[in-house]
DNA sequence: TCCAGTGTATTAATCAGTTAATACACATTC
DNA sequence: GAATGTGTATTAACTGATTAATACACTGGA
């Protein structure tokens, strides 16, 4: 478990996003246990309350569930899981579109640059994340 | 002059971005006068100090220049202007790539969704902005 | 039993951004 | 020359979001 934080977005938002990505890619499986609030806080060097806030959001979104006082687990609801993936993709695309449209760049030019950048640095990146 | 603000980013940042877009598209021409700090604040319903901060950033970035106490003007440096366009595009693409890559979606699928969304709502949008 | 680890809740402190209130020098216009 | 409208600077207050500190209740196992 490792997350690289940016300074722009709130930490708890970034934590939620990280879990969503892990769920979307299947890296975290349905029913799988996730670290306790305190342990996550230790691992990521963040405050336990920040971890708690992230988990609370995920719980309310149905991404994880908690029984008694045992560690939370990833939801087993496949509908939720697949919609997480869709949501992440759509959100990224919509942000991108609203960023790029005001500049009035032809779509094909955008796609060209996009493909180029998408394949960039893929080797170093593979070392880091997988 | 009209800008729709989101709540995520600081207002002064959004103002700067708006001007960059206008410069990049040629909607604001080299040497063209822009509203005074106080007038911009009036138009956008923001605090004069926020307008001042935005202009200060733009001045430091060489996007605008100010002589004496007459209203600031768009730079006449074509290098800066074209690099603004490049910068906006590259930044958007890089943000998008780093948002989409962790989800491990095939690039062609992404491009498909992107093209679809890019052409979406183009009619209503045209009414509003042009 | 008791204790360590869990989830949960409450309150305080911190921080960035924004707004606000003034002030000053300058120049253009009336 | 006075007035108005520029740009610029300084300082303080406010506000909402975020993070931090602390406490409480529960439970499963040693």
UniProtKB/TrEMBL annotation, chains A, B:
Signal peptide: none annotated. Residues 9-77 form the HTH gntR-type domain. Keywords: DNA-binding, Transcription, Transcription regulation. It comes from the Bacteria. GO terms for molecular function: DNA binding; DNA-binding transcription factor activity. The keyword DNA-binding applies. This is GntR family transcriptional regulator. It comes from Oceanobacillus halophilus.
């Amino acid at each position: 478990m490792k997350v690289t934080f940016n300074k722009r977005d709130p930490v708890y938002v970034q934590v939620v996003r990280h879990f969503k990505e892990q769920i979307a890619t299947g890296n975290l499986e349905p029913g799988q246990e996730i670290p306790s609030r305190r342990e996550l806080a230790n691992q990521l060097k963040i405050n336990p309350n920040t971890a708690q806030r992230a988990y609370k959001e995920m719980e309310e979104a149905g991404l994880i569930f908690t029984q008694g006082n045992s560690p939370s687990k990833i939801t087993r609801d496949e509908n939720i899981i697949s919609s997480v993936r869709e949501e992440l993709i759509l959100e990224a695309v919509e942000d991108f579109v609203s960023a790029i449209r005001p500049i009035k760049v032809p779509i094909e030019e955008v796609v060209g640059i996009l493909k180029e950048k998408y394949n960039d640095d893929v080797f170093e990146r593979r070392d880091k994340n997988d």
